[in-house]
From TrEMBL:
Enzyme Commission code: 4.3.1.12
Source organism (scientific name): Rhizobium paranaense
Name of the featured protein: Ornithine cyclodeaminase
Stated family: Belongs to the ornithine cyclodeaminase/mu-crystallin family.
Keyword DNA-binding appears in the UniProt entry: no
Keywords per UniProt: Lyase, NAD
Pfam families: OCD_Mu_crystall
Length: 355
């Protein structure tokens, strides 16, 4: 990233910039490198400020702020989740993010995060599966074939070598679109007629549905021994995907328990129900998968450190890339204490220009 002498200028990555950046690197390589950043930050989990995201819930959706800091950089993401949006041609999830220098408080990056959130969610799923899924797993069921599904497929292929997908969505056109988008990227794809059919023969099951309600996407009889479940869609109060009995049979791994107990699948369980924190598995202080028959469940709701990892990765990539715009974001008077004088000088210049 070229350095400018103007302190008011902040690099801004637009949607077009982000797409260009991802495609210039390559989707699989981008995800692989992002996985490394996510895993690195999970391994240094204790260095981060951690708080459940700040959520404003409405009947139709949620708007959230997700902040964190490692003491050197501060990051936050603004994100919404409105499942009804697809009916009006809008995205269910949109987001943008900011990364700032803790030393002086100045932003060092502003970026779109609708695309970047899809990538970081998939990268986090793949990192968790690296530690929890059966070794050598190549077949994954994806139940819910909306905007996140292709990213999940790419991340699992890039990091774990998953190349056989069994797809199901209550909307057959979503499955058709997903299969069409992925057909030229080396996957063997089965379009299934039910969730039950999709999980047959799958070693990994990803649930990533959008409806904001308690649902039973997976029932207890659908889950056999040895499966890894990547539960992504249940991510706010009153929104779940798995039958409670599945949770009772699984070893459950979470990002940040205080947040997951409110938003994740484990909102169905008592507040003191034992779960394991994923960061401890990544750091090597606890064991993930212990046996071939163990059912592992990653109760994924998304946490601010993952967005921090994504912001940090993009910032590093921009150091050698020009895919950003200069955003005139911060007031920068010649004399830091003379903000009003800056305003008056601007008025004088504007008046002179008119004259």
């Amino acid at each position: 990233m070229s350095q400018t002498q103007n302190l008011n200028i902040v690099p801004f990555v637009s949607v077009e910039n982000m797409m260009d950046l991802v495609l210039s690197i390559g989707v699989e390589k981008f995800l692989l490198e992002l996985c490394a950043y996510v895993e690195e930050d999970f391994a240094r989990w204790e260095s981060f400020d951690k708080t459940p995201r700040i959520a404003s819930h409405s009947h139709d959706g949620v708007i959230e702020l997700m902040p964190t800091s490692d003491g050197k950089l501060y990051g936050f993401k603004y994100v919404n989740g409105h499942p009804k949006n697809t009916k009006s041609g809008r995205q269910t999830v949109t987001a943008f993010g900011v990364l700032a220098d803790v030393d002086n408080g100045y932003p060092v990056l502003v970026t779109e995060m609708t695309i970047l959130t899809a990538l970081r969610t998939a990268a986090t799923s793949a990192v968790a599966a690296k530690h929890l899924a059966p070794k050598g797993a190549r077949t994954m069921a994806i139940i819910g074939n909306g905007a996140q599904s292709e990213f999940q497929a790419f991340a699992f292929k890039a990091l774990l070598g998953v190349d056989h997908l069994r797809l199901y969505d209550i909307d057959p056109s979503a499955t058709e679109r997903c299969a069409r988008n992925l057909e030229s990227f080396g996957f063997r794809i089965d379009a299934c007629r039910s969730a039950e059919e999709a999980v047959e023969g799958a070693q990994i099951v990803t649930t990533v549905t959008a409806d904001k309600k308690n649902s039973t996407i997976l029932s207890d009889n659908m889950v056999g021994p040895g499966i890894h479940i990547n539960a992504v869609g249940g991510d706010c109060p009153g929104k779940t995907e798995l039958h409670r009995d599945i949770l009772l049979r699984s070893d459950i791994f979470v990002e940040f328990p205080p947040q997951t107990r409110i938003e994740g699948e484990i909102q169905q369980l008592p507040e003191d129900y034992p779960v394991q924190e994923l960061w401890k598995v990544v750091a090597g202080t606890e064991t993930g998968r212990r046996s071939e028959t163990q059912i592992t469940l990653f109760d994924s709701v998304g946490f601010a450190t993952e967005d921090f990892s994504a912001l940090r990765y993009v910032k590093d990539k921009l150091s050698a890339d020009s895919r950003f715009q200069n955003l005139d974001l911060l007031a920068d008077p010649d004399e830091p204490r003379d903000l009003f004088g800056m305003l008056m000088r601007h008025q004088a210049r504007a008046t002179q220009a008119v004259a």
